[in-house]
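Please fill in the sequence for the structure shown.

STRUCTURE ENCODING:
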């Protein structure tokens, strides 16, 4: 304390001596002449300053002011100023950005005049109504030449200069006008895009509006308007507003992905862009911690700048990739971003040439960018509207084409009817003498005419009849449950008849259980299911092939021959799961299970185990591919014990769309569902599978495929 008192007494004596000696103290000649300052320029004063650390034992000032200031250290600066005017003069000294500062000078009578300034000074402690930052107003008496002392704490961005009151007032006036224009233009575009977002429900416009809001807020903060208007007595609270503006790059990248459709144009690179919001939120959390812990602004700035550099690298790579796509919307985006980058570069260059107007270049760069973005968004709307019109036109053309096909089909039917009628008339003339046959022929003609007029009804009736045929061909569930009391078959065709089917038979103490998924569904799939069922009967009971892998080998050849796939190129076929269960020779139970699969697996659980075991089917289709000897089916074998539960199934259950996001159920979720319910009675499992599917599918998602799930438990 004594040392500090001594130092300030030293400063008082030094100033007083300088005041009365009219600036000739110790030969002092490096003096700022206030009367010679121009109202249109600022004067850098780094070479006029003398500096020393308050914590130093050295009592002398040094001319050296270069280098970085040490944080949490208070520095004492001295500068000599001269007023040659016959009236008092006022001017500003601006040190750049400092947290807290004090200015001291002494009157002729030895009275100390003190001014407080700095970014953390409440307005009530400063002389000016504007946000202080690093500026302070100094007033000199007429014909004075003396030293002014400054106490600076936590200095960063040290750029000392001096300028007149008129220059300062004009700067504030220009700042307010530029901000009024900039903020007004930005907020017009913000409200415009928010209205489009509400009307079009396109989140692209929301991201764009949020980007402009945060960019607008950054310049509102950097110009000191936040502290001036909202936190005059608590300037540090404005830092939290700055935190919000640091999310601007996040909204920019989100907007960029939606605007240029990077998931479509750059699918691989877009996987990296998807992680950018998480990265930006991580930076936001770090900066929040630094602010709440009152870490120095220099440290906060370094973290923010490093994050922005990574953003710039990511965005630059994206721009290069977008240019290579030659997409028109991408050109809009690259051009707009290029204008912004040009404005930012001018901003940074101007910090060294025109520091008082440097921010203007960045702000006008953003204005130009958002205007071009808005033009691009309008172009995007036109593209979407054009695609919509083209889709409607294509739909109309397709409807007209269908109408022509329908008319052609009706004409052909009429010709067939006429031809058939002529043939019937010729037959009637030939069989005129046999009245009974004539009546039968007339009734037949009438029935055929009725069939033609009611074609759609007949087709539907035919499909329903095909359903009865298919149900008659499929094994009786009672017969299966007589062998396996604990069992279920969850069978749900999509279109009345099904391409999924199941097969069951017994031969020589072997039980054959097969689940198959034919190509397609509805009537085509049903035909394939009838062919498959017939072939399985032939293979097992006529060809006497009972090994599951050999059954699939024979089935693969039979389908290709039956469908003449070598000549027609047809790729129809099926995916099959074949299970062969071997009975014990001495008792009515099963000792082992053999399995082979063509594109389909088998899941099984042992008693007292919740871990699902899987026999993976071979990736070899039944039909549709060229036969190769090296592509043979593999047979899997497992011993059976009481409580052993297994499942075979088609892919219809896992491929069903539903849920809140309209996605597939997926095999993983299906496997987890079976793991959850496998200990329940099989009848209860059947009910659970149905209720889970109904809940997943809901009322908004139609069934997309035939569904087959077979569950068996060994008793």
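FILLED IN BY: designer on duty
SEQUENCE:
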């Amino acid at each position: 304390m004594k040392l500090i008192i001594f130092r300030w007494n030293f400063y008082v004596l030094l100033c007083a001596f300088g005041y009365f000696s009219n600036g000739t103290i110790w030969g002092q000649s490096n003096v700022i002449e206030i009367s010679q300052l121009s109202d249109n320029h600022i004067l850098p004063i780094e070479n006029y300053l003398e500096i020393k650390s308050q914590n130093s034992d050295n009592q002398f000032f040094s001319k050296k002011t270069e280098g970085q200031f040490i944080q949490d250290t208070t520095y004492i600066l001295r500068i000599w100023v001269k007023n040659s005017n016959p009236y008092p003069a006022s001017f500003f000294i601006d040190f750049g950005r400092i947290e807290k500062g004090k200015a001291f000078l002494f009157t002729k009578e030895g009275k100390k005049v003190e001014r407080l300034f700095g970014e953390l000074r409440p307005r009530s402690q400063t002389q000016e109504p504007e946000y202080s930052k690093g500026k302070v107003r100094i007033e000199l008496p007429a014909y004075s030449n003396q030293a002014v002392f400054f106490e600076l704490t936590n200095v960063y961005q040290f750029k000392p200069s001096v300028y007149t009151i008129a220059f300062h007032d004009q700067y504030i006036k220009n700042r307010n006008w530029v901000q009024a224009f900039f903020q007004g233009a930005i907020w017009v575009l913000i409200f415009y895009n928010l209205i489009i977002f509400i009307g079009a429900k396109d989140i692209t416009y929301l991201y764009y509006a949020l980007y402009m809001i945060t960019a607008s807020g950054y310049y509102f903060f950097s110009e000191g308007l936040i502290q001036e208007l909202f936190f005059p007595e608590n300037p540090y609270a404005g830092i939290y507003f700055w935190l919000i503006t640091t999310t601007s790059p996040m909204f920019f990248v989100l907007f960029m992905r939606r605007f240029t459709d990077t998931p479509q144009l750059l699918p691989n690179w877009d996987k990296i862009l998807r992680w950018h919001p998480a990265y930006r939120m991580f930076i936001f959390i770090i900066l929040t911690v630094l602010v709440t812990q009152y870490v120095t602004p220099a440290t906060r700035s370094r973290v923010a700048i490093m994050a922005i550099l990574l953003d710039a690298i990511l965005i630059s790579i994206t721009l290069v990739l977008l240019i290579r796509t030659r997409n028109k919307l991408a050109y809009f985006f690259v051009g707009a971003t290029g204008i912004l980058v040009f404005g930012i570069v001018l901003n940074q260059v101007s910090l060294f040439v025109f520091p008082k107007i440097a921010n203007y270049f960045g702000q006008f760069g953003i204005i130009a960018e958002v205007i071009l973005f808005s033009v691009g968004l309008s172009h995007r709307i036109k593209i979407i509207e054009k695609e919509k019109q083209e889709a409607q036109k294509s739909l109309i053309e397709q409807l007209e084409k269908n109408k022509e096909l329908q008319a052609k089909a009706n004409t052909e039917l009429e010709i067939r009817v006429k031809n058939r009628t002529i043939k019937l008339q010729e037959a009637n003339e030939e069989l005129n003498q046999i009245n009974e046959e004539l009546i039968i022929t007339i009734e037949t003609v009438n029935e055929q005419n009725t069939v033609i007029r009611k074609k759609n009804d007949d087709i539907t009736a035919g499909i329903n009849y095909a359903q009865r045929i298919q149900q008659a061909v499929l094994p009786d569930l009672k017969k299966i449950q007589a062998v396996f009391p604990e069992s279920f078959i969850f069978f749900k065709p999509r279109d009345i008849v099904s391409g999924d089917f199941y097969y069951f038979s017994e031969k020589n103490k072997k039980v054959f259980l097969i689940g198959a998924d034919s190509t397609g569904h509805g009537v085509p799939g049903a035909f394939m299911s009838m062919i498959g069922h017939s072939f399985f009967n032939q293979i097992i009971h006529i060809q006497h092939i009972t090994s599951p892998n050999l059954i699939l080998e024979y089935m693969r050849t039979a389908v290709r021959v039956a469908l003449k796939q070598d000549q027609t190129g047809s790729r129809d076929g099926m995916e099959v799961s074949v299970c062969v269960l071997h009975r014990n020779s001495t008792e009515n139970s099963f000792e082992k299970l053999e399995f082979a699969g063509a594109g389909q697996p088998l899941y099984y659980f042992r008693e007292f185990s919740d871990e699902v075991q899987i026999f993976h089917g071979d990736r070899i289709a039944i039909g549709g591919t060229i036969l190769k000897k090296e592509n043979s089916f593999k047979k899997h074998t497992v011993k059976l014990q009481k409580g052993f539960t297994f499942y075979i199934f088609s892919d219809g259950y896992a491929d069903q769309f539903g849920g809140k996001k309209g996605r597939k159920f997926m095999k993983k979720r299906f496997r987890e569902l079976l793991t959850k319910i496998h200990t329940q009675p099989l009848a209860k499992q059947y009910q659970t599978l149905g209720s889970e599917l109904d809940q997943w599918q809901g009322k908004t998602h139609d069934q997309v495929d035939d569904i087959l799930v077979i569950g068996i438990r060994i008793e």
